[in-house]
Amino acid sequence: MFDTLLPYLLAGISVGGQYALIAVGYTLVYGILRLINFAHGDIFTAAGFFMVYLAAALPPILAIPLVIILTVVLGFTVERVAYKPLRTAPRMSIMISAIGVSYLLQNLMWYLTGGLARQYPVLPGLGDSIQIGSASTKVVTLVTPVVTVILVVALVLLIKRTKIGMAMRAVSVDFETAQLMGIKINSVISVTFIIGSAMAAIGSMLYFTNYTAVTPTIGAMPGLKAFVAAVFGGIGSIPGAMIGALIIGICENLIKAAGLTMFSDAFTFALLIVVLLVRPTGLFGEKTREKV
Amino acid sequence: MKKLIALVLAVMMLVPAFAMADNVIKIGVFEPSTGDNGAGGKQEILGIQYANSVKPTVNIGGEEYKVELEIEDNQSVNDKAVTAAASLVNKGVSVVLGSYGSGVCMAAGDTFVDAQVPAIGISCTNPNVTALCDYYWRICFLDPFQGSVMANFAWDKGAKTAYVLNMQGEDYGSGLANYFVEAFKALGGTVVGDKPETFPEGNSDFTAYINNAVNANCDVFFAPCSTTYAALIIDQAAAQGVKFPIMAGDTWENSAILNAAKGKDVEVYCSTFFDENDDAASAAEFVKGFKEWLNADSGNLNNNGGNDIVAAVSALGFDGYNVALAAIEAAGSADSQAIAEALPGVTYEGVTGSIAFDDIGDAKKDMAYIKYANPETGAFDFVKTQKVGE
Amino acid sequence: MKKTGNRRLIISLAVVALIYVAGFIVEQTCGSKSMAVTVLQKGAVYALIAVSMNLLNGFTGLFSLGQAGFMLIGAYSYAILTIPMAKRAAVYQYYDGGIVQFTIGMIPALLVAGVVAALFAALIGMPVLRLKGDYLAIATLGFAEIIRAFIQWDAIGPLTNGSNLLKTYPTLKTAMPGNTVLFTFIVVGICIGLILLLINSTYGRAFKAIRDDEIAAEAMGINLFHHKQMAFVISCFFAGIGGALLAMYQGTLQANGFKSAMTYEILLIVVIGGLGSVSGSIIASFLFIACSEWWLRFLDAETMIGDFKVPLLAPGFRMVAFSVVIMVVVLFFRKGIMGDRELWDLGSRRKAKGGSDIK
Fold it and tell me: Which residues, in sequence order, are CB contacts of C221 under 8 Å at separation 6+?
């Protein structure tokens, strides 16, 4: 029984870890700006395309950091151009702006790449197959959880121990008071987006090594699931996002194992709705009281 | 201000309509250039454009008419398809070529019937395209035929159990999967789960489905889906070290599949309409001329996926254009109704075989080419031609 | 006061009548297949859906992203009930003719479409409307996806035809041949008229109160859940009818086309028109459809000026240009075209702004 389930579990852990890296980006931005960054899934896809084009011209040693840098620049630009002007506007406006940016990025990618699925380049070592028990899988399946945990731990340390982390926490608790206290809001928000985009870039490298076809719309579903994971784990909580993502990844694959494949996506949303109804702040979130 | 700009743009749009051109006949190209099927659609357009460059004029009643192509992008989705079809009709096309993807053809059928403009389907294989629309003809084979061809091929290879997978909500894939299942069961084989399995759109992880197939000890994996998912399935099947062959229909005859299979230990077969290495003179000439034309323009090369491997749909596009020209000449006029009446009687020797239409408007094609994606050379190897009942 | 009220009413009715006559004339002169008519039809259908979404998002402040799911339910209900008996076997070819073996008329089917969508809305609203703000948005988005997966499920194929197209049901062309624009305008007009009546009633004022400040509204005695549920159900009723009309416009129906991308388009239309303005939604809908489907099509074609190939113009550029235009509107015209004013308020004095916070 465990033998038959093993490949599904491995796939679940692998994809869960990749969702986790994307989910961290969502939860960071939401914690600070109360914004669901719909464009995050498309930044993830763009990172995939950057690698496809760069790896054709450069060796992986150069391509990998360059991809991270380009993705960070993209995330930073999106924030400056589309979100900063709307900081004083009602919440709905900035959310529409996020949807608009997502729309624009997708159409740009369709236009520039033509739509034919591009094959993601094989990164040395990660793409090889190895045997675990009776299941054969790729090395990246084992690498993903390790990388995820390391990055999440590093991020939590950053938030808890450094000055900029303290500034981020202050801004997420009370935007205006933090400004009055002398915190440079623009820097904090920019750093948030930079971290989120960098994590998405690393997540994309792991994800696309596993699922090697890159198309402009391939990031939409993982992006949405990552957001669900962030909410499930408790929005604003980074470890929560990781755990939520792992649970979603594993459950998704177990549902496919059970034969109800057409509901694997629907299940993720059903899970979300149940969580929102039973425990709205998610697994690890904090309760906020609304004062009149 | 915005409304002023919009008004100016609207007026600009009307200008071409007023442009009087002498002796020009317009052929509409109804293909997806973006969206899920954008890649295949672009390759079909390339075939049509090449044919236009070879034969840019047509003889109507003794006079030479210049043939102009009006290309509209139906974006691979049904509601945009309707407006794209309406746009073509409004540009005054006499006949329409397209599309790649049966769903958009069925969606646009009513528009063409209303406007009495005949449409020639290039690679849409679902029977309902012609069965439910009087103004649609097609030059490729049908899904029931294709399904039984692949079922026969699998059976001949000794397969007894098949695992069938297609995308949810996509009529080409689900239709072809159903026909394969019917034919395979009729030959005496069994299908895992007794019917096709479906995966949701946007899915990237196929390890669960591949595992299901492995656990059921299947002998063949039949997955008629678009090239994006095909690349993922092949890659993951190779990673899991599967031993059974993977087969699909005509959508897999594409360089994306070759890229996915290259250097991996997989056996991939697909059925298609055309073979690049066909010995027949007309086919060889077409292949040579088309490759030259592709390589002369980097834009065309890019649209073909960055290489000059001839896709079968490009060959079909080429044939489709020539069939349209033959119909126009037979009708002796540029009037769409006259062309519609002349189409049933048209016969043409194309690079994809001989084309003649039956009562419903389907081409009487009885042969398909089976191809094997060679992981070492990264090209398609011709395996055999398969007829039904062999 | 009564004089201005009467004057506004007469002006609005006159404008509406003018629009109907104009639409009728356009169809007669340009023909039923012209782009102008196509855009008018689709624009009208989207206008209805945009107004229904505006009722929910703009007037009641409930941020819901599930519109596509309810449109889908309405569209399928309509199509399943109106496929002519003779064609059922051909359409349901994999499911032996399907379960539903009767056909009802077009207008009753439209109403049933709305009712079925409203029923689902009532069911879904019960758990979901307790959530606030963004959580409500994600929950409704999730439900829309679940509905879509459910409808495509093979096991209920005999009812919905699974992954395959639904075809041959009565379309706009068969409803009122030659007068398709008039038919669409009439149906859409009746629906929007009903919504306007609702907005101008006590219920409408309660909705606006909930939008402005939920806690204050509750303190004033407004039953929050009851009113939210009402807004949700009514909005989805009209979304269902809108979905059925969209099916009539398209001629064929497939669940795949009703993705969250469609909801985002409607949301963009609502925001561009102005949250809280019915006339804004209508105007924005027509502009949106005209721009994306008609006026910008020339950007897709590779054009040559003499021997010089114009750069950038290639398939796909139309959507890029359109997205840029949307972003410009969202960033620089935040309140949308009409803000929260209606067309007939433009002539008179500006309405006094509601109490602003001291922040």
Answer: none
Supply the Cα-derived Rg of chain C in whole angstroms: 21
With beta carbons under 8 A apart, name residues in chain C contacting B90: 33-35
Least Cα distance to B26 among B324, B317, B290 occurs for B324
CA-to-CA distance for B225 and B42, rounded, in angstroms?
18
Contacts C268 to A, Cβ<8 Å:
96, 99-100, 103
Sign of CA pseudo-dihedral B278, B283, B288, B291: negative
**One fold for both B22-141+282-357 and B144-272+369-386?**
yes
Per-domain residue ranges of chain B: 22-141+282-357, 144-272+369-386
Query: Is domain B144-272+369-386 in CATH 3.30.930.10, yes or no?
Result: no
Per-residue pLDDT of chain B (390 residues; tens, 9 = 90+): 555 655 555 455 444 444 445 688 889 999 988 777 777 888 899 999 999 988 888 888 788 888 888 888 888 877 788 888 888 888 888 899 988 888 888 888 888 888 889 999 888 888 888 887 888 888 888 888 888 888 988 988 888 999 999 888 777 888 889 899 999 999 988 898 888 888 877 777 788 888 888 888 899 999 998 888 888 899 888 888 888 999 998 888 877 788 888 888 888 998 888 877 776 778 888 888 888 888 888 778 777 777 777 888 888 899 899 999 888 888 888 888 888 888 888 888 888 878 888 888 787 777 788 888 888 887 788 888 777 654
CATH of B22-141+282-357, one of 3.40.50.2300, 3.40.630.30, 3.90.226.10, 3.30.200.20: 3.40.50.2300
B301 touches chain A (CB under 8 A): no
Residue B215 in contact with partner chain A when CB distance is under 8 A: yes
Looking at this predicted complex, what is its ipTM?
0.82
pTM here? Answer: 0.83
For chain C, give every domain's residue range: 9-259
- Test mutation, B11, B110, B116, B136, chain C, max C CBs within 10 A: B110
Question: Among candidates C42, C105, C120, C132, which has minimal Cα distance to C74?
Answer: C120
Q: Cβ contact (<8 Å) for B110 and C171?
A: yes
With contact defined as beta carbons under 8 Å apart, do C301 and B71 qualify?
Answer: yes
A243, B163, C200 from B166: Cα distances, Å: 32, 10, 50
- Distance from C265 to chain B by nearest Cα, in Å? 13
